[in-house]
Structures are given as structure tokens and as C-alpha cells.
Amino acid sequence: MTETQTAAETVSTGKGALLEARDLHVAFSARGRSARAVDGVNLAIGQGEIVALVGESGCGKTTLARTLLGLERPTSGEVRYDGSPLQYGSRALKSYRRQVQLVLQDPMGSLNPRHTVYEAVAEGPRIHGLPDEQEIVASALSRAGLRPPERFFLRYPHELSGGQRQRVVIAGALALNPKVLIADEPVASLDASVRGEILALMLKLRADLGLSALVVTHDLGLAWNIADRVAVMYLGRIVESGPVEQVLTAPRHPYTQALMSVLPESPERIVLTGEPPDPTRVPGGCRFHPRCQVLASGRAAEAGVDAACRSEPLSILPAVPDAQAACHFAAVGG
After folding, report:
1. In what order do the strands lie in the sheet with 212-217?
2. What is the CATH number of domain 3-114+169-234?
3. What is the four-CA torsion angle of 324, 328, 329, 334, rounded to 10 degrees?
4. DSSP code of 273?
5. What is the pLDDT of residue 165?
6. Whether pTM exceeds 0.70
7. Domain regions of the chain by residue span
């Protein structure tokens, strides 16, 4: 049994989960209506496990990530870390954010252009009053692949390549010796030649430090290359999840199938019709049904589930390691 399998199996019921969302809901007021950005999510990340959270823009994945970081408070449900509910007092959040760190997609935007690399990486340790600052900064830069670290201390962001800037952002997270990284589109702004280097770095950090990670992305190819498990999100809910090889080689939900179809090796392209997801207007029945190619093609009617697709809501998926899909058509073996 591999370490990855062990980590996946420990999250089967939330037991052993390092970071967990339980029946999480986050709603905002928008244009006089309630926007259900996260509308019932169960998600668990085990020790040393990398989970990819995949979906198109507007599906709620960034709001979910911000809520897991404690930057948004849930309307209902809870975030749990190491078995305990997240507390929202300033002292508790400060302690929590030493354990769970954010890596942003735009290093040029997240790095202060007036601060040197040293100052950027030292910011977290200074906030938390950690001793041996220079040693911490040097170690973090070295672990992020910027060696020798002293060579980068006095450089400014504009003097670095895109890949080097992203490594500085990662070093800033590592300086606090976290247990979990939440990486929001970590390679979206990088050239293809550099993307592989950053993904390899994240895998190395998992191997060397036992880090867990939630990687938020719209790119299923990235999920394939880095994740142990994948969770596919649509309109505030996870609609399919499971081991990455199983979900991405044999996707059961029509939405996952459509996302997979844009990859170069896909035999056919599935073009979704209808409106993009609007969290202020969640449709009845299956929330994907207005855009579903299986329903539009008549295959759902042939399977006798077309009425259910339009009218019967689906259960919220639990946080289990096995492959699962919230789909009436998939449930009858479609």
C-alpha cells in the first residue's frame, strides 16, 4: 500500500483528515438576491495528500478556498483542522494561518514591488515573531529551489523571472512551516516551460516535508499531473470526486466529461450550451441540467431519468476517497 493510498483511505469518513469542509455553505447578497457561492460541500484533505479542486470560473472554487483559509466565514457548516472546528477569533486565526498557507496565482501582483525578496519572505515570520529570521528566510528560499538563497536576498520582483517570482511566493508560505498549502491556480500565469518546474517543486515539497495541498485550478491536465484525488465543482457543489486516474480516465458526470473534452488527446469536443453558472439562480433538479449534453441528446430520456434530471435534487456528495458522481444518469449506469 502506498503513502498516497493510505492518505486517501484515512479521509473516508473525515477520520484522519487534516483539513476538512463539512456541509459547507457560503452565501453572499448580490443584486438583491442571495448568491449561493458554496452550496453544500464536503471535502477532506489527508496528511501528505494533494487534492485538485477543478471547475470553470464562477463555480465557487475560489470562495471555497478562501473559506478553508478562514478569509470567509461560512453561512452554515464548518471548517475543521486536525479534528477541531476552526475558530474565528483573531488569535485563533493567526495560529491557524501558520498551519494553512495560501499560494496565489499572480506572483507579480502578490509581491510588493518595493520589497526585496528577503523582505517578502520575512514578512510572515515577523508577523508571528519567529526567532532566527535570516536562517528561516534562507531555508525557505532554498526549499523553494532558489539557491544559493543569499544571492536572491536583495533582488526585487522585477529582476526575477516568472518562475522565480512564483518560487518566492512559495518560499513566503514555507517560511511559516505550514502543514497545508492552498494553491489558487499556481501555474496559470507561467509559461509552459516553467509550469512543469513548479509542479515538480510542489511534489518534492510533499515528498520532503509531508505537506498536504489543495490545488485550485480550471486545468484538468494540471490535476492529472499533480493530484492524488480530484473534486469537480459546479455551481457551488462538488459533482464528481475520487482518485484522479479513475475520475479523469472514466468521468461519469457529464460536466466532467465536457471539461475533459477540451484536452488535446480527447476524441471529441463537447461544447456546453446555455448560460454559465449563476449562483443567484440555482436551477431545480440537477443543477447542471440546463446545460447537460446527455439530457439535450435524449440519452437521459432513453434511460428514463430525464424527469428526475429536471425536478429531483441530488444528494450532497460525502467526503469519501472512492469515485462518486452526483448524476441521475450515472446512477442508472449511463
Report:
1. 100-103, 180-184, 212-217, 50-54, 229-234, 237-243, 324-325
2. 3.40.50.300
3. 50
4. -
5. 95
6. yes
7. 3-114+169-234, 248-331
